[in-house]
Amino acid sequence: MGARAFAHRDLIAIGALERHEILYLLDEAEQWVALNRQAKKHVDLLSGLTIINAFFENSTRTLLSFEIAGKRLGADVVNMHAATSSVKKGETLIDTAVTLNAMRADAIVIRHASSGAVGLIASKVDCPVLNAGDGSHEHPTQALLDALALRYKLRERGMAADDFTGLVVTICGDILHSRVARSNILSLTALGASVRVCAPPALMPAGIEALGAQPFTDFDAALAGADVVMMLRLQNERMDGQFIPSPREYRHLYGLTAERLALAGEDAIVMHPGPMNRGVEIDSNVADLAGRSIITAQVEMGVALRMACLDVLTRRTRGVPGWADGEWV
Questions:
Q1: Helix, strand and coil in the chain, % to nearest 5
Q2: Considering the entire predicted model, what is its pTM?
Q3: Three-state secondary-structure class, residue 78
Q4: Is-contact 317 127, C-beta < 8 A?
Q5: For residue 110, is it left (φ>0), alpha (ψ between -120 and 50) or beta?
Q6: Which of 190, 193, 229, 230 is the most buried if burial means most Cβ atoms within 10 Å?
Q7: Closest CA relative to residue 313, chosen from 43, 18, 73
Q8: Residue among 320, 23, 50, 189 at smallest CA distance from 6
Q9: What CA–CA distance (Å, rounded) separates 202 from 218?
Q10: For residues 134 and 82, is the Cβ–Cβ distance under 8 A?
Q11: Per-residue pLDDT tens digits for 305-325
């Protein structure tokens, strides 16, 4: 499909993408995986372009990953932190969007605590916008990098196909507040996987089946025969009230221990988007399990995947012929 394979100006949600568009971004990322494993990791592809990372919500991995991605592509990267922004002084989100737009950035990466905020900003600016996480809505680049890391691990084990047809993936944790869970469900099911989600009843969103996932409250049952186990942390910063009895009780029922992992399929792959609460949702001897945990690979793939997204979304700005906004340009 070449340049016509991604017909969007922005990357706001996995739910807005077709299966072939997800695969296209994964394929595009592979060249950057190779580059990042070399001694010289810099290219001038985005030289002269300015990327603003506007993070209205605290982040370590995602912000650092986007910053490294932009700089390795040769762009000028500016980080805007919420703690030092005019938002703290009462500026509205729309006014902030107008201000960012007036600076004529070539791409804006946005992370915000409110669902839908990134889409609102995208509608007010003239450049591509990438969603680095908005409330409990979506985190598209996290789902894409998770898929890329999983693809590499399965290839290492001899998988020939690029999709996940027939794969059983269990996602366990705070499903209710997790934008990572939502984006991963949409991405993995689009690529052919069967997705199970497991959480305490209070942390299981109603109607999750509509996204294509099978809900469980019994972690042992959800693990049976799973090829991949993805653990999520408790999102305490999004909780208003008591959702679990205690971290100790939560670990007893929903923590991934070595004994519990044995209930999954043979050599089941272990994933976690981070940050991890070791000894709560996952034990250290599982998180660091050689040959099966790909948690550090997820971090590695994050830089390459975000390089791919920045490349693809700025091609129109750079005058690279392609398909954008529903037309050939």
A1: 40, 15, 40
A2: 0.93
A3: strand
A4: yes
A5: beta
A6: 229
A7: 73
A8: 23
A9: 13
A10: no
A11: 999 999 999 999 998 876 555
